[in-house]
């Protein structure tokens, strides 16, 4: 199933079947546990973004590598998400998340099937073809074995020739490679968490979160401003229970996460990014985009396993957005 001219194209180079194993109590290393439930969901960060947007009635197309008979597609199809699967020889990986009853999640992620040069080229072409008429292209997650670490940077540079906005949410080597190429490949938006932002700025991730929790977002704003000085359009820093900070060329805002009972962190960051994009497509100004992002991330964290939030679960009024004084 494919969509012609989707509003949002999401890109997931390393998709996964996300298997969630729910325990009734704490996970103890070396012990035998009784499992309460097991569920399989189509995963990968870009796939999660596409699922959340589809639930909100936005036409999204998930571009990803998978052969026509891959079990992953039989798990993805029932969600109603439009997709463009680029045929490859390997099998989509299975990631396992073990969730405890207090919301603690332990993840075991497989590396993914390797992609050869021809598959990488085919995936690039599929992204560019579907991005031609899109408003946003969201590239998310890790890269599979065999894929060059600068692939996001290369595609982001090519997408500059198109009118679409580009968002990137990745980490480690691919994020470092993108940052090294900001001069020609800086996206309109990046969505780092505290560890990813710290890796780009040299800050301490725990200090970033603690400072925001205590109402002092200046270190986050300074790190984000440094990235924007290198060409990035906006930085949406998602900081877990501390909430989030949004910085762009016109200002900076912070929003605390509303009180929830956390059940699983799987997909929370992806839901935040989807909330931002949903608000942006609707023409919202930056404070409302941040409000929507935090509302979506919080709603996802309150859901079990890999479940993702529908619009009915979004409580914008529970999220207070505060402008950060421009004294930096």
TrEMBL record:
InterPro entries: PfkB_dom (IPR011611), Ribokinase-like (IPR029056), Tagatose/fructose_Pkinase (IPR017583). Keywords: ATP-binding, Kinase, Nucleotide-binding, Transferase. Pfam families: PfkB. Residues 14-311 form the Carbohydrate kinase PfkB domain. It comes from the Bacteria. Belongs to the carbohydrate kinase PfkB family. This is 1-phosphofructokinase. It comes from [Mycobacterium] wendilense.
